[in-house]
């Protein structure tokens, strides 16, 4: 037996007949057929459905004929268009107000301000608008900036940034990681992981993946697991990892109890190609120790300390500023264009 095929109205290519407007008071708006008298719609735009609706619900209008009927139908058509334009304008105004809410929420997040500042910012805008452009007060009042709204806006923006980074990470041919561990003012360990990747078209992306918080003294395994978790949040394929830059702490680079060795094992057969680097600050620290600048630095420290102990501190600061202005062009022997 042949399979039963369901009938699809969209495939029937039914066309609206303009004569139905005068006969049955129906008009077509996009793909919808609307009654001008009650603003109802019919499921299928065919004459039997339209005629049945008209004769059932608007039989009295059948007595209106001639020019009077034509004038009333035109009036009803204009009224429907005005209502739709009002709804369209309200939708556009709401869209702009929502966009403004997101923009201000982003500014609050970037500046590190509390979410409750949204209400204060809104009140400032309304107060300024009352003096500068009173016609915009009503629009500003529709901008949602309460605490919970700002929180949701920032969460949506954060999720969108993560999604964009995941989309770019999917095109990475190779990438490198930079991990830095530090302790904040409440003694919570914060692990920051950055990524720098390149696509097959040589488009580079450098971005913060995320921040992981850990309680207590972090172990190498905890740092490794947190790094893998952050990489997984943006769908990074660790088999494409080619280098890792760390802050040089034992928990990061230790051969037996560091974060990097298990990361190398996690990559499987690619572990021999992984390059381990110290961050630039740690390299400078090692360089200053190996090159023997202790005597020079001791003299500089002693001189600066003696200047701070006497009354020539202000003059010394002026001298340093002039020295920078004089010596700044001597650091580079060749000037590079661009």
From TrEMBL:
Q: Which residues form the SPIN-DOC-like zinc-finger domain?
A: 20-70
The record's listing under Pfam families reads: zf-C2H2_12
What the entry lists under PANTHER family is as follows:
EPM2A-INTERACTING PROTEIN 1 (PTHR45913), GENERAL TRANSCRIPTION FACTOR II-I REPEAT DOMAIN-CONTAINING PROTEIN 2A-LIKE PROTEIN (PTHR45913:SF5)
Q: What is this protein called?
A: SPIN-DOC-like zinc-finger domain-containing protein
Phylogenetic placement of the source organism: Eukaryota, Metazoa, Spiralia, Lophotrochozoa, Mollusca
